[in-house]
TrEMBL record, chain A:
Membrane topology value: Peripheral membrane protein
Keyword presence, Signal: no
Full protein name: Synaptotagmin-like protein 3 isoform X1
Domain RabBD: 4-122
Entry-linked Pfam families: C2, FYVE_2
Domain named C2: residues: 304-429, 474-604
From TrEMBL, chain B:
Name this protein carries in UniProt: Ras-related protein Rab-3
Organism: Eublepharis macularius (Leopard gecko)
Main function: The small GTPases Rab are key regulators of intracellular membrane trafficking, from the formation of transport vesicles to their fusion with membranes. Rabs cycle between an inactive GDP-bound form and an active GTP-bound form that is able to recruit to membranes different sets of downstream effectors directly responsible for vesicle formation, movement, tethering and fusion.
Bilayer topology: Lipid-anchor
Region (Disordered): 195-220
């Protein structure tokens, strides 16, 4: 009996000792995770740097790793067996006389070794349900913490100090205190272990876990995945008339738009798609046109399956959004009967569905597990990103341009943290079928218009000093400014049309002769219309033109709408070509979820805080019939 | 008592981040065969004749330089007693390699080797690397298990074999280094198997458009 007592006593002490071990182990694990995270970051950096960029036109003739050009006959480079990219001799790592790898493939393998991935991959073969980073230690600590009623004061591992065993000496009193609380540790160990070994199924069977990483990153991944679950799958399948018809009607109507509203044909003719067709055709556009066409109507949809691995980052230096497409696995066959699949990846930066928003990888032959290692890039202002969604879709390229949709992922950047480096890491995403979508949601994106607005209160309007100053300012800043600034009682609305971006290209050279019309419609008053001068031969017009609307009241403005439409002046004196329009104020014609509400908010800010400038970015829509001009 | 054990664990090794690989190794075997002594000899180069039974599990960290790589070892020491089995076996899954130990002066510990081996087969991954170690070879006078029997059993189980002494520091370093080497081998095997660049082109030179001499330099 005395031995029994003795044993019990020892048990308590034992528990304490084991807990110490567990916490030491936990600390080690955390450091290891940190080390691996750093390694992965480095690899990602290398991949970003070296990965073949599709924005480069002759990517085939460049070394995929150092971008050095390769010869046609001499010094052609050779294809890396790991990633199928052509690389120059300098970017090869010789493994043995018969085998070499490109630098990135080598680094990738290296990290697999350094992070111990190889072991997890092997282990999974025997224990498929085992989470990769779940260790006996984590499980024991978890079960212990759950089972003990006191909030555990873990003998906080000392910060990685050089001192030996700080824990045990310093916190001796404290440990005595919680000594009793750990009495049941072994009990909990045992029960828990039994649980583990009996019901492996109870453990989170997450197949992503098996290929992927740990804690924080997992959370991110889950978050992202659920984001893409609910993400608005915008404008993917154009359910409107078959594309051919659209093209024909667009072509017939040429470069113009009739003033009538609600005329479908006219609307169609003003979409960027038909614009390209009706204007000069350059090679690139024609190519895009074809594939847009295929997307718009005549593509098949496979039984979507599989996953895609890619990483996203924003390069603040070059204002580039970069998407590193790494690989896919378990794709559906593009042609199920023939078990054929030639996959490639396509991206759009929604809501822009125009060809200029499209990027594609190369086509891989005969595989449902393609490896791409390609970077797709978008030049875009950082501030614009949160209104965008990245649509990444997989396609099969069959014979005769026969295309089959293999699945897609849509990522909303609204809450994406580009500054957090961990969001730059590669992730696997489940491919999804195209979401059905209604015509209402169809967004005919045709660029963005940047404006700056201010409401000037009556007292300031009458202040002659201010007026003079304003005139001076205007002369300096806006030599093209409208002269109309007769003073009316009431408020003045000042609106500077700064610039437009991503306007549809309607000429082969992409240059426009553009101007902006404004139309302020106040109930019971005549529409107030103004326009900017024409800026010739610019793809990216910066009008910097000031519109002044005098004699308005805030309540009038609350109930009115200000339409801004962008036009291209026709070269031959025919009708001007509508490029896009946007509305400030009530009666928003096309609700594009976030983008519009953002502008709405800015507009409300203008109205509610007079005498201060507010910048507004407006998304331009191509459906001319909804705007006043 | 606590402080006696405490002094044995340094924090220094574990916070070092400068290494290439991290291997996890488990030492198993009957109680009092010398597992803890073996680990202390290796990690701290110390030995105490006093017997302090290991509680459940414990570990030490040591970084070594091997095959041009810095390898950090997390070496788990386990309690041999049956009552701890649930905890100790839970750690089998995380281990890449094992040191299975018996005491050459203790027949029973040798007879248990087969059982320990079965435990490994049950709870560990399929490619677990195991080294069989007959410890206390300094006590030649009290030897009851001949080297030959040890070697034969190892061969039968498919393990490599060493006789060692934690007390006199015989074959301790060698045991760990050999185990590290065979884990390294397993690692490259596993990586090669998953690698199309290697498996696809094993027998001869690869078909490249231009089989450029490997040492040719490019200006990049
Ligand atoms: N002579 C001799 N004694 C040893 C050797 N290794 C361990 N011992 C002793 O054997 C006893 C048990 O050792 P320990 O390491 O605690 O065994 P464990 O239970 O397997 O961890 C202790 O008294 C040690 O001093 C050795 O190589 N030679
Ligand atoms: Mg021991
Ligand atoms: Zn190169
Ligand atoms: Zn490669």
């Amino acid at each position: 009996m005395s031995q029994e007592l003795n044993l019990n006593f020892l048990k308590g002490l034992e528990q304490e000792i084991v807990l110490d071990v567990l916490y030491r182990d936990q600390m080690l694990r955390k450091m290891e995770e940190e080390r691996i995270r750093k390694l992965k970051m480095q690899l990602q950096e290398l991949q970003w740097k070296g990965s073949k960029s599709t924005s480069q036109e002759y990517s085939e003739k460049l070394c995929a790793r150092c971008q050095k050009s390769l010869g046609v006959l001499m010094n052609r480079g050779a294809v890396c067996n790991g990633c199928s990219h052509r690389v120059c001799p300098g970017c090869r790592i010789i493994l043995n006389p018969y085998t070499w790898k490109c630098t990135v493939c080598y680094a990738q393998e290296d990290i697999k070794a350094k992070a111990g991935e190889w072991f997890f991959e092997e282990r999974v073969k025997k224990f498929p349900a085992e989470g990769k980073h779940e260790t006996a230690g984590t499980k024991l600590l978890e079960s212990y913490q759950k089972l003990s009623n006191i909030s555990v004061i873990p003998p906080t591992p000392p910060p990685f100090s050089e001192s030996t065993s700080g824990v045990n000496t310093v916190e001796h009193d404290q440990r005595k205190g919680f000594h009793r609380s750990v009495e049941n540790l072994f009990l909990s160990f045992t029960t828990h272990i039994k649980n583990i070994s009996k019901s492996q199924n109870d453990m989170t069977v997450d197949k992503y876990l098996l290929t992927a990483d740990y804690g924080q990153e997992m959370e991110l991944r889950k978050e992202r995945r659920s984001q893409s679950d609910t993400a608005i799958d915008i404008a993917t399948r154009v359910k409107l008339a078959p594309s051919l018809q659209r093209l024909i009607s667009g072509a017939q109507d040429g470069n113009g738009i009739a003033p009538e509203r609600n005329c479908l044909q006219k609307v169609v003719s003003s979409s960027p798609l038909s614009s390209i067709f009706s204007a000069g055709i350059k090679r690139g556009s024609l190519y895009s046109l074809n594939s847009t066409c295929s997307e718009a109507g005549n593509f098949e949809e496979a039984d979507v399956s599989g996953e895609i691995e890619f990483a996203i980052r924003y390069n603040f230096k070059s204002s580039m959004l970069e998407i590193f497409i790494k690989a896919c696995k378990n794709l559906a066959y593009g042609e199920e009967r023939k078990k054929k699949c030639n996959p490639y990846i396509k991206t759009y930066l929604l809501p822009d569905k125009s060809p200029q928003s499209k990027r594609k990888t190369s086509i891989k032959k005969n595989t449902v597990d393609p490896t791409f290692h390609e970077t797709l890039k978008y030049k875009i202002e950082y501030s614009q990103l949160e209104m965008r969604q990245l649509q990444v879709s997989a396609w099969h390229s069959g014979t005769f341009r026969h295309r089959v949709f293999l699945g897609e992922v849509v990522i909303s950047f609204e809450s994406w943290n580009f500054e957090d480096k961990s969001t730059q890491l590669l992730s696997w995403y489940q491919l999804k079928a195209k979401a059905e979508q209604s015509e209402d949601n169809m967004i005919n994106y045709s660029g963005e218009l940047l404006v700056r607005a201010k409401l000037i209160s009556p007292s300031l309007c009458n202040n002659s000093e201010y007026e003079d100053q304003m005139k001076e300012n205007r002369k300096h800043l806006f030599p093209l400014a409208a002269t109309e600034d007769k003073t009316y009682p009431g408020y003045q609305l000042h609106l500077i049309v700064l610039e437009a971006k991503n306007l549809p290209a309607i000429r082969p050279d992409g240059l426009l002769n553009s101007f902006v019309k404004s139309c302020l419609c106040i109930l019971g008053r005549r529409d107030m219309k103004q326009r900017t001068p024409v800026l010739k031969k610019q793809a990216h017009p910066h009008w910097k033109h000031l519109f002044v609307f005098s004699g308005v009241t805030t309540s009038q403005l609350q109930q009115s709408c200000l339409d801004l439409t962008v036009w291209d002046q026709s070269t031959f004196g025919l009708r001007n070509q509508f490029l896009g329009g946007a509305r400030l104020g009530t009666k928003v014609p096309t609700r594009t979820s976030d983008a519009t509400s953002q502008a709405d908010l800015q507009w409300q800010k203008v109205l509610s805080s007079p005498n201060s400038w507010t910048d507004i970015t407006l998304t331009l829509h191509s459906n001319a019939h909804v705007f006043n001009f | 008592m606590a402080s006696a054990t405490d002094a044995r664990y340094g924090q220094k090794e574990s916070s070092d981040q400068n290494f290439d690989y991290m291997f996890k190794i488990l030492i198993i075997g009957n109680s009092s065969v010398g597992k803890t002594s073996f680990l202390f000899r290796y990690a701290d180069d110390s030995f105490t004749p006093a017997f302090v039974s290991t509680v459940g599990i414990d570990f030490k960290v040591k970084t070594i330089y091997r095959n041009d790589k810095r390898i950090k070892l997390q070496i788990w020491d386990t309690a041999g007693q049956e009552r701890y089995r649930t905890i100790t076996t839970a750690y089998y899954r995380g281990a890449m390699g094992f040191i299975l130990m018996y005491d050459i002066t203790n027949e029973e510990s040798f007879n248990a080797v087969q059982d320990w081996s079965t435990q490994i087969k049950t709870y560990s991954w399929d490619n677990a690397q195991v080294l069989l170690v007959g410890n206390k070879c300094d006590m030649e006078d009290e030897r009851v298990v001949s080297s030959e029997r040890g070697r034969q059993l190892a061969e039968h189980l498919g393990f490599e074999f060493f006789e060692a002494s934690a007390k006199d520091n015989i074959n301790v370093k060698q045991t760990f280094e050999r185990l590290v080497d065979i884990i390294c081998e397993k690692m490259s095997e596993s990586l090669d198997a998953a690698d199309p660049a290697v498996t696809g082109a094993k027998p001869g030179p690869q078909l490249t458009d231009q089989p450029a001499p490997p040492h040719q330099d490019c200006a990049c």
